[in-house]
Each structure stands twice: as structure tokens, then as C-alpha cells.
Design brief:
This protein is an alpha/beta fold and 419 residues long. It contains 18 helices and 14 strands. The strands form 3 sheets. It has a 6-stranded mixed β-sheet, sandwiched between helices. A 4-stranded parallel β-sheet has the order 5-4-3-6, with helices on both faces. It has a 4-stranded antiparallel β-sheet with strand order 12-13-11-14.
Length: 419
Amino acid sequence: MKIETYSSMLENVCKAEERLRNVVVKTPLAANNNLSFIYEAKINFKREDLQQVRSYKIRGAYNKMASISSESLAKGVVCASAGNHAQGVAFACSTMKVKGTIFMPLPTPGQKLEQVKMFGGDYINIVLYGDTFDEAKDAAMRFCSERNSVFIHPFDDLAIIEGQATVGIEILEQTKEPVDYIFVPIGGGGLAAGICSVFQILSPQTKIIGVEPSAAASMKKAMEKGKPVLLDKISRFVDGAAVQQVGEITFGLCKNVLSDIVTVDEGLVCETILSLYNKDAIVVEPAGALSIAALEKYKEEIKGKNVVCIISGSNNDITRMEEIKEKALLHAGLKHYFLVRFPQRPGALKTFVMDVLGPDDDITYFEYTQKNSKEKGIAVVGIALKQNLDFTPLIDKMKKYDFFVNYLNNDPSLMNLLI
């Protein structure tokens, strides 16, 4: 994009800010003392998790709908979303008294479904369709075409991007010193494109780091190919950023402005979620943890710098916390699964517990069926360690006492059955 494009966009972003003034919360830009100490930098959180719909998505959704004529709105609006955009559209529909149909993927967490219903009330209808956001979007587009309704795209629309860009305006208004680095989560790229459009003009020296889940890195792939491409397969775990293909518009605005794109494993995202909750009493969804999880990969570059991490949302379902804890432990090397061979005689389990497990090791999963016709039986055993240094001694003792059969953590198909 040419610099003139960003300049003209900035004018529209300022109009969007005025339009949203009495609609959205001007969320805090808060220093985090814990991470600032760890990284020897000034780490600031832009708390979009404190927005009315608990994510920044309300900004783009409301701005887009407010720019549509009343005649078009009377035909109804349609959107597709994994959750947060849906809540923004639902809130806008209720506030503006516009009928909306919202398509959401079938695996959408129940908490997000309930929030959409709460914000939209009688003005919205939810349709669950497909396994991914992209499948839900395709169905929404067909529905929209059949009924001549207005489609509210979650990211690839200038009015949406300009609404999200107001996050960037607020950050620059709230900071007293230049921003050296800003870490931005990326799904379809609407927020990143908005940040790029603002900072390219108002703070061009700031390094903008996009952050994606490693199992859904559609912007990174687009950068490699020079255009948006459809990923064959993605993980839905980081549901707020699980997009198979970034937008044409968002890619165009990001491609020459983003300084880097970092990908983050799901396990590190889960560690970050738990750390934020335990140390700062901050509840975030997986996508909301992306920008903070990426700091470790930039720990040398950000020393002594003024850094902003955008916490994009906090719509996390409490029923997911066991899975989050499990993934965090696996990533940290503190949870391990094995096939263990047990002699079918009294006292075998006692030997395993007393002679194989270390003093701080704990059995967290055990599945064993005794078969009288066999001399030895196989059990699936999950073991939690106090520290990952205890892993090698555990393996050595399992082999010494002839309990070891196989290590399961490196087999994705088997691990999917266990967690």
C-alpha cells in the first residue's frame, strides 16, 4: 500500500473513533510489573479484554454497521464468527435495533454462544454450521446472497479495519513515551491491518510484530507466498485466531508494515493463560494470550524498550480449563504418558510406585485391564513431574525394572485420545 492510502485511512479512523466514542470502552494501557521485571523492559497491556463484549471486535462491527444506510440495514445483516465478532455484531444489532443472522462453527465454545445470545437478544438468530470459521463464513455468504442482506465481514472490510484501528489511536494517546514494539495477535488480520494503518503514519519507528498460533499461521504463509492462500488444515484450539486464509485487504495493509510474524505453540499459549491468571488475576482466551506468549521469542530485542501487548479478548469457557492445564503441563515437560508393562501378580503396582516413581512424581492417569491368560498386562499411565529434570531418571528406572513399553507424548494420534 502507498503511504497516501494510510493517510486517507487515518482520516476515516479518526471518524470511526468519534462514531464509537459513546459505544466502546476506552480500555486501559496498563504496565505489567511482573513481565517488565522478567524481560527488563516496560511491558504494557492494552486491555481489550475489558471491552463491553470482552474483545476489540465491537469496534469494527459497530463502525461498519453505523456506516450502512438505514434502507440496507432494514434488510438485515449477516455475519460469520468463531465468537468475538459475533458478539460485536450482536451488540450492534441490539443497540441499533437491526435484525441479524449469525453463523458460528459447530465447535464454538458454549460460553461464546451464550454471550452472543445475551448481547443480541431478540434481534439475532444463531446458526451453527461447519467445523471451522471458513465453512461457517461460506454458508453465511450463501445465506446473505439468497436474502439480499448485508454481510458484516469479520476482518476483510475497510470499515471493519478502521474500527479496529481505533485501538492504535488510543494506545498512542495513552503512552507518554514512544512505543518501540507492539505485539498484535492475528487471525484474519483486521486488528493488525488497523494497527499498521495508524502506526505507519503516526509512529513509523515502532516495530509491529504479528503473532499467530503455529497451527493456524495464515498470515505467515501469505507473506511467504506473496498473497493470501488457503491453509489445508488448521487447529481450532486458538479459536479467536483460527482462520484458514487472511483477507486480501488485510494482507495488503500488513505486508510491507509488519516487522515480523511470530508463531506460538498451543502449549505456550496455555502456559501464558495460566500464568496471567495465577500472577495477575487476568482471565484471557487463547487468542488473547498470543501477544504475551510471543515475548519470550523477543526477550533480547525488547530489553530496555517500551513494549505494548494487545490482549485481544477474554471470552474463555471455564470448561476448557482442564484441557488448557493439560496442554500447559505437556509443553513444560511436566506431564508424560507411557505404555507400562505390569506383571499380573500382587504387588506389581506397589513396586512401580515405590521403586520407579520419584518422591515428587504423581500418577494422574491410569488405565489397566487384567487379562488372566497373559503373564503381563499393558497399562496407559500418565505421570506429572515436579520438574522436567526428573524425566530421564523416571525413564531409566522404568527400563531397569522392565516396566517400560512406549512413550506416548510424541504420538499425536494417541495423545488426541488422552487429552
